[in-house]
Each structure stands twice: as structure tokens, then as C-alpha cells.
Design a protein that fits this description.
340 residues, Isopropylmalate Dehydrogenase, 2 domains
């Protein structure tokens, strides 16, 4: 296979959640929404059972990645020899969780082997993963480890949420709020900013990326009156980014960074902690924002929502964000291929 003859590798995700529902929804929208071909790195049975629960008719077919694109118009290609899962809607089965992890690893291996164009991950349940000793707070850090294992590259994976009108990056991610000031360093902000600028240029086609850097404290610290971190950590990081040739501004008051006029002044917002980044993007683009992992030697995207266990099998789960993730993965993989 060459170029975009390769399918996207779509992971199993937590099978008790809405992953099967939105996988089905994305495939059903293949003609109307321009969904690119993917291979589901999981067994087809869970999709058939979920479709029956929702009242939908689908076809699945065991396939290799090389067969997936040709099959895609008529059936959901499902990776051959993938173990079965229970996947009962809303009820996590501990025996399924190791298979969730195996699916992520298998999807990355497909890309590494040149059999898939990019990885798209269905939502996982962090507590279920923790219960089996996963050891990572989510996909992002695990993908960094796989990058070392498979590509031999030590990387710093960076989470970016991208919507039609806003891109945000949390510099610290799944960290308790009380720990953020201890974890936040100028070096971390600078490293994150460099990765964001590089991937905006390389994969998103932004010629001269502009970064808006949020302050940590209210009013960006009000010149030290509301906290010293913005002057001692954030401002030196912004100066270092500018010295490195990256157009960065800040520290900026986070409460005035996300209105329409402000958003037009930058290409990505670097935020100091999780909710500072995710509240605005999910408010503006809950259904069509995409989680993109920057800094990896392969393309990875994901819907920007969780497993939504109560919605599993109800017919109410919307596939919009997964469709956006699949389309973005396809676009970014094409940009990556063009550079090779």
C-alpha cells in the first residue's frame, strides 16, 4: 500500500461505552460525511450486538489492513484474529480492559509497519485502565512510550484540542489543580510551545504559527499581586519562545482570550492547566472538536469526549466528534506523506 490507500486504524476503546455506537455511526455516515476508510482494531461481534441494541442494520467483515479500503463501502472492516469482548452497554467487564490496551498497541504497530495511515482512538475509561495497572493517566503518555518502543524515539507527547475556530493545548494535563504550580516550569512551557509550533507548521500547514500563552493566575497575576508564577515562570517562557523565532504572546488573562476577536489573533492557545484549555473548546465545539496528539512520529487523533457509559446502546450517542477525528487524521496523514 502507498499513500492514502492505507486505512486509518480505529481502536476498540472501552467496549461498554459509546465507542461501538459512534464507530457504527461514523461508518453509516461514510457516504454523506466523507468519512475516510478505517479498519476497526477490534472484533466485529461487539459492533453487531450494539447495532442490534440500537436498531440498526450493519455489516462487518474480518479483514487485513490491505483489504479494508476495498471493503469499506459495503461493511465495517474489522481486524482479523482479534479476541472477542463482552462489551455490554454501560457495564465494564474487567476481562475486556487488557484488550482495550492491546488494541491501542496494535493500532500503533499497524502505522509503524506501514499498513495504516494514522491512529484514531475511541474513548477509554481511565478508572477501568487503572484497575488493571495500566500506569498512565490516559492515551497520551502511553502513546509516548509506544513511540520509544516501536520507533526508538524519545518524545514529549502534547495534547491539543482542535475545533473549527479554536485550538488549545494544556501545558499540564491530568494533574490535580493543587499540583499545577509545582509541575509548571518555564522549560515545560517552552518545550510544549516548540512542539506545537513545529506541528502546526508541518502537519496543519500554518506558515508562521502564532501562540497565545495564558497566565496561570487571575488577570495573569496582575503584575505579581495575584501570584508570582506569571512573572517568574510564564513570562520568561514567552520570552524564550520569541528568542527561538516563535511568535508567542503572553502571559495573557485567560478570561479574555477566547472571545471571537481574540481567537483571530492566534493559531493556538497554550493554557496552564486542563480545564483552562478544555472549558472553552468544549463550550465552542463540543460535538466537532478533535483531540490531536502532537510530538509523535505518527498521527493520532481522537474524539474530544469520554466513554459516556449511560448513553451506550441508547441510540443517543452522536458520532460527530469521531467523524471529525477520522477526517482530521486523514488530512494530517496526507500532509505527513507529502513531506516524505
Amino acid at each position: 500500500m502507498s499513500g492514502q490507500d492505507k486505512p486509518l486504524a480505529l481502536t476498540l476503546g472501552e467496549p461498554a461505552g459509546i465507542g461501538p455506537d459512534i464507530t457504527i455511526g461514523a461508518w453509516l455516515a461514510r457516504g454523506t460525511a466523507g468519512v475516510p476508510p478505517f479498519i476497526f482494531v477490534g472484533e466485529g461481534g461487539v459492533l453487531l450486538r450494539r447495532a442490534a441494541a440500537i436498531g440498526l442494520m450493519i455489516r462487518v467483515a474480518d479483514a487485513t489492513p490491505g483489504e479494508a479500503s476495498a471493503i469499506f463501502a459495503d461493511a465495517i472492516p474489522c481486524m482479523k484474529e482479534t479476541p472477542a469482548v463482552e462489551g455490554a452497554p454501560g457495564r465494564i467487564a474487567p476481562d475486556d480492559t487488557p484488550k482495550v490496551i492491546d488494541s491501542i498497541r496494535a493500532a500503533v504497530r499497524l502505522v509503524h509497519a506501514g499498513e495504516a495511515a494514522a491512529v484514531v482512538t475511541n474513548p477509554v475509561h481511565k478508572k477501568a485502565l487503572d484497575a488493571v495497572g495500566f500506569g498512565f493517566p490516559g492515551h497520551t503518555d502511553f502513546l509516548g512510550v509506544l513511540s520509544v518502543e516501536l520507533y526508538g524515539r524519545t518524545t514529549t507527547p502534547v495534547m491539543m484540542l482542535a475545533g473549527p475556530d479554536l485550538r488549545v493545548v494544556p501545558v499540564t494535563v491530568h494533574v490535580p489543580l493543587a499540583e499545577v504550580p509545582r509541575r509548571l516550569t518555564a522549560a515545560l512551557i517552552v518545550e510544549t510551545g516548540k512542539i506545537v509550533a513545529r506541528d502546526l507548521e508541518r502537519r496543519f500547514g500554518v506558515v508562521t504559527p502564532r501562540l497565545a500563552v495564558a497566565g496561570l493566575n487571575p488577570h495573569a497575576g496582575e503584575a505579581g499581586m495575584l501570584g508570582a508564577e506569571d512573572e517568574t515562570i510564564v513570562r520568561p517562557a514567552v520570552e524564550a519562545l520569541n528568542a527561538a523565532g516563535i511568535a508567542a504572546s503572553g502571559p495573557l488573562p485567560a478570561d479574555s482570550m477566547f472571545h471571537a476577536e481574540a481567537r483571530r489573533s492566534y493559531d493556538a492557545a497554550l493554557c496552564m492547566y486542563h480545564d483552562q484549555a478544555l472549558i472553552p473548546i468544549k463550550t465552542l465545539a463540543f460535538d466537532d472538536a478533535v483531540n490531536v496528539t502532537l510530538g509523535l512520529p505518527f498521527v493520532r487523533t481522537s474524539p474530544d469526549h469520554g466513554t459516556a457509559l449511560p448513553l451506550a446502546g441508547s441510540g443517543k450517542a452522536r458520532a460527530t466528534s469521531l467523524i471529525a477525528a477520522l477526517k482530521m487524521a486523514d488530512r494530517l496523514a496526507r500532509a505527513e506523506t507529502a513531506l516524505e
